[in-house]
Amino acid sequence: MNKTYLIFLLFFAASYSSPGAAADPANVYEDFVRCFKNKTNISDEDLTDVVLPRTSVFFTPVLRAYIRNARFNTSSTPKPSVIVLPRVDSHVQAAVICTKTLNLQLKIRSGGHDYDGLSYVSAVTFIVLDLSNFRNITVDMKDDGGSAWVQTGATLGELFYRIWEKSEVHAFPAGICPTVGVGGHVSGGGYGHMIRKFGLTIDYVVDATIVDVSGRVLDRKSMGEDLFWAIRGGGAGSFGVVLAFKVKLVEVPKTVTVFRIDKTTDQNALDMVYKWQFVAPRTDPGLFIRVLLASPTKNKTQTVNAKVRALYLGNASDVVSMMAKEFPELGLKIDDCKEMTWIQSLLWWMNYKDVEKVKPGVLLERDPGSAKFVKRKSDYVEKEITKPELNRLIQQLETLDRTGLVLNPYGGNLNATATNETAFPHRHKLYKIQHSSTWSDPRPEADRLYVGSLRTTYRIMTPFVSKNPRSSYLNYRDVDIGVNDHGKDSYRKGEIYGRKYFGENFDRLVRVKTAVDPENFFRNEQSIPTLPHKRR
Ligand SMILES: Cc1cc2nc3c(=O)[nH]c(=O)nc-3n(C[C@H](O)[C@H](O)[C@H](O)COP(=O)(O)OP(=O)(O)OC[C@H]3O[C@@H](n4cnc5c(N)ncnc54)[C@H](O)[C@@H]3O)c2cc1C
Ligand SMILES: *[C@@H]1O[C@H](CO)[C@@H](O)[C@H](O)[C@H]1NC(C)=O
Ligand SMILES: *[C@@H]1O[C@H](CO)[C@@H](O)[C@H](O)[C@H]1NC(C)=O
Ligand SMILES: *[C@@H]1O[C@H](CO)[C@@H](O)[C@H](O)[C@H]1NC(C)=O
Ligand SMILES: *[C@@H]1O[C@H](CO)[C@@H](O)[C@H](O)[C@H]1NC(C)=O
Ligand SMILES: *[C@@H]1O[C@H](CO)[C@@H](O)[C@H](O)[C@H]1NC(C)=O
Ligand SMILES: *[C@@H]1O[C@H](CO)[C@@H](O)[C@H](O)[C@H]1NC(C)=O
Ligand SMILES: *[C@@H]1O[C@H](CO)[C@@H](O)[C@H](O)[C@H]1NC(C)=O
Ligand SMILES: *[C@@H]1O[C@H](CO)[C@@H](O)[C@H](O)[C@H]1NC(C)=O
Question: Where does the signal peptide begin and end (predicted)?
Fold first, then answer.
């Protein structure tokens, strides 16, 4: 037997003996298309736009269009065998059925902002279902004080814009980065700068449509309250493909106030951050004060910066007198404040300086140009860190490069909803930390350095954050806290990251998962596992 033939045989065996391991993408495409055409009756002309093989000229641009982390935009990043770009519900239904028939993995992508790329990368043969054409939004101001049906491939910016078109005093409590996709954001919990006033994004979801593992389209009534509970905070990707959410809008004042204050460690940053822990989670729910602690970037001569960014749902004079009383260490002056409309405040958080001159239409822009390299992790603080400890922490941060901690206050009305009313469990924490590193050097050494720095901040924070389990926020995806290959230990592995993301709610999520998808078709590196057979 000659060597080439042996290699061929080995390759052949690898491709065909274990589905999901390393199937030939061309064969996957052919098999998939045969099934897809049978289920949808799509014309050959439409097919070229809807089901893309690797050889399609659209394949790479479509794949790249929603890659938001340059770490997963390299030539060695595993690519899907096929991308499906559905235009109608029946395309989604067929994509589910045909991927299941071929025994492959389906990765569902809405806005592609998953920090660890789980919506478009996999270690096994996979198909990407890209929902970017599912972006319809229907706002109805007459329904129950304002509501909207929003398809999951829409962006938050599009939702904000469509609401603003109808009313300047209505809004939606969600993340403030306009390119984030509705699908991942909403099903993972979702929060923004009104979290203390209104709670989480999922607290405003009143209905949804989902394609289940059998390819049926279900709404809240037909899916039942268990599944509807799970997709609010549990991450929808473990349960089905959400096509759209119905959400309730909220009312905001005509004038809101924003302010920013930057302090270095030489300018009493320590006192300010220490006091922030007591004030920010307890003050008026209309006030959201975020603090960013950034290590020095370009060189080590700088000290750590504490940057304050805040939104107040009211006027400047009110917030200034409130802060003078509660938080003198902040030193807020009327000149630090800017009054504006709510929609303008979004532009301000996007770092536009002169918001009066910017048209809200920028919220509709989907293409941020190129993406940086990013790694994120999350933590929850339950008790204020003491001043000496905080001081030591800031000194340790100074030794690191390009890492930061973003402190997001909780409190206010976040706990008005019970911790078991949605799958999101962390409603009684004091504040959340996002560990953050962002860089543009493409070399693998840089990746090791910056990801390593972030793991260092995570280690340093251990004594100060939640324990047993150490909690994490699902939407700040972090594969470091555990991954699952869904082999024989799937439940045990799933419980490791599952308890961190969902606490006590993990058990109900597992029960729902086992009931709606017992064969675990909807799986990814951090999906909800099914109960082991012996425990069903
Ligand atoms: C720049 C930036 C800013 C951010 N700001 C905030 C913020 O202010 N607040 C906040 O809470 N979070 C924030 N996040 C995190 C963000 O909420 C999550 O990354 C969210 O999951 C992204 O949703 P997506 O649809 O864009 O992502 P995707 O990568 O498309 O999806 C994320 C996950 O959800 C699954 N999924 C997506 N769509 C569906 C669907 N229709 N049905 C079933 N499963 C689906 C995917 O398979 C994947 O597992 C931010 C992220 C980035 C990159
Ligand atoms: C799909 O396949 C089934 C079984 O082979 C066949 O009966 C049916 O006619 C096919 N439908 C279409 C639309 O091709
Ligand atoms: C597919 O199209 C053919 C011809 O237009 C039609 O007879 C058949 O019912 C269609 N099948 C499905 C599944 O839509
Ligand atoms: C979006 O709405 C338009 C107009 O009603 C409709 O033609 C289209 O099919 C819808 N798109 C999806 C993906 O539902
Ligand atoms: C260090 O960074 C600061 C702020 O970016 C800059 O002003 C200073 O010149 C830099 N020093 C050196 C030695 O590069
Ligand atoms: C600020 O708002 C309060 C109501 O909260 C109002 O009484 C006050 O007059 C307002 N001040 C200014 C300067 O607009
Ligand atoms: C991905 O890489 C390609 C090729 O290097 C580049 O053109 C593109 O801008 C990158 N995409 C992102 C989102 O950075
Ligand atoms: C909810 O949070 C507020 C503000 O932090 C606190 O005063 C209140 O006691 C909390 N309520 C419950 C039920 O935990
Ligand atoms: C949620 O918790 C409350 C109080 O602990 C309990 O009474 C209720 O039954 C729980 N609800 C669900 C759906 O588990």
Answer: 1-22
Q: Establish whether 497 is a catalytic residue.
A: no
Output the CA 92–ligand 4 centroid distance in Å. Answer: 14
Report CA-CA distances (Å) from 473 to 46, 175, 179, 322, 506.
39, 14, 19, 31, 13
- Which atom of ligand 2 is nearest the CA belonging to 41? 13
Four-way CATH pick for 256-340+372-464: 3.30.1600.10, 3.20.20.150, 2.40.30.170, 3.40.462.20: 3.40.462.20
Residue 467 to residue 464: CA distance in whole angstroms? 9
Render pLDDT for 468-518 as a digit per residue (tens, 0 to 9): 999 999 999 999 999 999 999 999 999 999 999 999 999 999 999 999 999
Identify the nearest ligand to the CA of 367 by its number: 7
Q: How far is Cα 192 from Cα 203, in angstroms, rounded to an integer?
A: 13
pLDDT tens digits, residue range 346-405?
999 999 999 999 999 999 999 888 899 999 999 999 999 999 999 999 888 888 888 899
Distance (Å) from CA 477 to ligand 8 centroid: 27
Which is it for the CA torsion 349, 353, 359, 361, positive or negative?
negative
pTM, rounded to two decimals: 0.94
What one-character DSSP code corresponds to residue 481? G
Q: Where is 346: in which H helix or E strand?
A: helix 342-349
Pick the CATH number of 3-130 from 3.30.43.10, 3.40.1010.10, 2.40.50.1020, 1.20.120.1560: 3.30.43.10
d(CA 362, CA 347): 8
Q: With a 6 A CB cut-off, is 493 part of the ligand 1 pocket?
A: no
